Amino acid sequence: MSYVRCQRCGRPTCPECQRQAAVGVHCVDCVAEAARALPTTRTALGGVRHEGRPIVTLTLIGLCVVSFVLQLVLPDWTVRWLFQPYVAFFEPWRFLTAAFLHSPGQYLHIVFNMVALWFVGPTLENTLGRARYITLYLMSAIGGSVGSVLLATATDSWATTSVGASGAVFGLFGAILVISKRLGGDVRGILVLIGINLALGFVMANIAWQAHVGGLLTGGLLAAAYAYAPPARRKLVAVAAPVALGAVLLVATLLTYASIGAFSL
């Protein structure tokens, strides 16, 4: 039997349910009620500000790391989920799943991508809010794969395979460039970062620069919609912009596949 009463509601509370307050002890129900009553803090772009760790960014990094371990221990894990423009016509989930894979024999591949994700991800997660941020990341990942399809004929890469979160990360680069510009920040450092990383894709072998370009453009366009939406229409834009951009990516992809006669196969 508990002889300690909550200083707020007066009900008895057991030791496990007691929470130390500024004055006396509160029960867990009163603590939860007080938390719900606190006003929601929003960022300059209308995102809900969350205290503590960047949960979405940490989750994305965790998924990539877990997938990388599976690549090392399961021989067919990489082949099952990697991206190849021609194969993706028949297995469209590869447009997204490849973003959670990395080159098994090149540890620096995943290290560089995860460091870049940690470098820009928390800022965007906090500025946009978790829902818009995860939408931006996933759309950029898909946009990177779409870039590989749209440029496949020009680069003779229909059978070229690719893995990595680079397309999604470049989408975040594009997003932080647009958002920093919108908020009046200095974007010179971001431009240099993007320029160097884009250039590396053209001068180094085995880098899918097509995905970098696709992710960068997708992330930048979606971020522009988020950043420049009128405050009263931010919720509408948060839904309508990804849907509209997704439709554009889908149509462009289908038209590209149609140009090589994929539908007649």
Automatic annotation (TrEMBL):
Entry GO MF terms: peptidase activity
Domain Peptidase S54 rhomboid per the UniProt entry, residue ranges: 91-226
Source superkingdom: Bacteria
Coiled coil: none
InterPro entries found in the cross-reference section: Peptidase_S54_rhomboid_dom, Rhomboid-like_sf, Rhomboid_protease_S54
Bilayer disposition of the protein: Multi-pass membrane protein
Any Pfam family matching the protein: Rhomboid
Compartment(s) where it occurs, according to its Swiss-Prot or TrEMBL record: Membrane
One BP term from GO: proteolysis
Transmembrane stretches, start-end: 55-74, 94-121, 133-152, 158-180, 187-205, 211-229, 236-260
Presence of the UniProt keyword GTP-binding in the record: no
SUPFAM superfamilies: Rhomboid-like (SSF144091)
Keyword Metal-binding part of the UniProt annotation: no
Endpoints of the signal sequence: none
Keywords: Hydrolase, Membrane, Protease, Transmembrane, Transmembrane helix
Similarity-based family: Belongs to the peptidase S54 family.
Protein name: Membrane associated rhomboid family serine protease
